[in-house]
Specification:
CATH superfamily: 7,8-Dihydro-6-hydroxymethylpterin-pyrophosphokinase HPPK
Organism: Thermocoleostomius sinensis A174
GO molecular function: 2-amino-4-hydroxy-6-hydroxymethyldihydropteridine diphosphokinase activity; ATP binding; kinase activity
Distance between the termini: 31 Å
Radius of gyration: 16 Å
Strand content: 25-35%
Pfam families: HPPK
Bound molecules: adenosine-5'-triphosphate, 2-amino-6-hydroxymethyl-7,8-dihydro-3H-pteridin-4-one
GO biological process, one term: folic acid biosynthetic process
Low-confidence stretches: none
Keywords: ATP-binding, Folate biosynthesis, Kinase, Nucleotide-binding, Transferase
């Protein structure tokens, strides 16, 4: 938890955000857990909930399965500042972008931020592909079934039951 408490008069507004994590290069399970810890240690961000980790068939060029999870944050940061903090954490885990949707050491997507709809260079909220992606909606369903997507007006539970779950299974460390 890294949100400082102040008096009511100087309290910054606390927002709720949902994020997605993905990794399929390196020790992906450790990378996902470490990234969550790094987010929680970031000033202005507190980690409130994490989904289980799922092993998912990669959508995109042929590559190993991806470990995906979602998390809920409280934050006093504004959306661009939160996104910048997330990109810095991605970079610190060695993220290199070579091909679209290619293998990644760590991908962090900002899915939802309160009930905000935002489209600006470098940042679209809600994440534009969120509602079609079982690898996002299945873990998000575990921690935020009642959150309403402000674009479609549908809850995560409703959206999750409209996508194909076949490429998504719970990850077990015992499979390693
Ligand atoms: N809501 C968002 N979450 C994450 N990145 C976003 C978002 N909106 C815009 N972006 C921008 O998109 C870029 C992310 O590109 P990246 O290569 O990670 O795409 P991707 O996550 O692999 O693919 P996709 O965007 O389809 O999930 C970042 O530079 C970021 O500025
Ligand atoms: N299974 C899976 N497929 C993907 C993922 C992802 O996180 N998991 N991310 C993508 C774009 O970043 C494209 N395809």
């Amino acid at each position: 938890m890294s949100i400082p408490r102040g008096s009511d008069s100087d309290a910054a507004k606390v927002h709720q955000a949902a994020i997605a994590l993905g990794s399929n290069i390196g020790d992906s399970h450790t990378i996902v857990q470490s990234a969550l810890q790094r987010l929680d240690e970031t000033p202005g961000i507190a980690l409130n909930a994490c989904s289980p980790v799922y092993q998912t068939v990669a959508i995109g060029p042929p590559q190993p399965d991806i470990l995906n999870a979602c998390a809920l944050l409280s934050t006093t940061l504004d959306p661009p500042t939160l996104m910048t903090a997330m990109l810095a954490i991605e970079a610190s885990f060695g993220r290199i972008r070579r091909e679209r949707w290619g293998p990644r050491s760590l991908d962090l997507d900002l899915l939802l931020f309160d009930d905000l709809i935002l489209k600006q260079p470098g940042l679209t909220i809600p994440h534009p592909s969120m509602t079609q992606r079982a690898f996002v909606l299945v873990p998000l369903l575990d921690i935020a079934p009642d959150w309403v997507d402000p674009v479609s007006g549908q809850t995560i539970a409703m959206l999750a039951h409209q996508v194909d779950w076949s490429g998504v299974k719970l990850y077990s460390l015992e499979n390693e």
